[in-house]
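In response to reviewer comment 3 from the previous cycle, which asked for concrete evidence that the modeling workflow produces usable outputs, we include below a single protein chain processed end to end. The sequence was submitted unchanged, and the resulting structure tokens are shown without manual editing.
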Amino acid sequence: MVSIPTRNLNDGQLIPQIGLGTSELTGSEGVEAMIAGIDGGYRLLDTAVIYDNEHEIGQAIAKSGVDRDELVVTSKIPGRHHGFDEAIESTGESLARLGLDYLDLHLIHWPNPSVGKYVDTWRGLIELRDRGLVRSIGVSNFTEPMLERLIEETDVTPAVNQVELHPYFPQAQLVEFHRSIGVQTESWSPLYCGNGLFSEDPILKVARAHGVEPAQVILRWHVEIGSVPIPKSGNPARQKLNADIFDFSLTLAEVDAISALERGRMKDRDPNTHEEM
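The workflow returned the following structure tokens.
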């Protein structure tokens, strides 16, 4: 089993430096895949209402034999549940599906700016944290101005902003902004959903130098830039390989060479215009 170190969040809670993405892990096979991940050392489990697998997450936790307090369970509020009261109701429904008394981390999944309710939703999350139903609160796919608005209007800084981030879209300016205000960056699709990344020369060069796989190089790159990657895999061998990234490190030159692969988002999902309900 891989031992995964942690980072400190701005609210005093801890978060593992790599998590298990669970999108599309559903049904009995999904439960078994999640149990395998927990058995392999993962303690950060990332789900969302729109993944439609919170029930499976709860089953995996119950069957894993790992103490609940050792796990960091994340879910996300969908766009259709934006609003103060709606966020509180949505969270109660998530907890019921999960079979849990609290969430370790709860995020606003997308800002959906045309709806105009993400600040009210954030106020709902603050209330949920104050009630003890959520330990840490954060957001996903928020831009710098959106984060600034949340902080200005509520005086509460998100613990986390989970965004698309990979060597083709390193988001260096946003990562540095997060660091400057004490927000932890998380990376969704950290290995990129498409062909080509694993064959890039800077990644292959580092993989050969350290005797590791390209995926491990990329995930270690995330750790080096200060982000928490959330790779998704239902394959136990791949899960273990992805998590086994803490016995080597990259030089600054290697990090820079990988970051220089930048070419943009996977798809047209600019948070200023893209919305998910």
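The beta strands are 6-8, 14-16, 20-21, 44-46, 72-77, 103-108, 134-140, 160-164, 184-188, 227-229. We consider this sufficient to address the reviewer's concern, and the full set will be provided in the supplementary archive.
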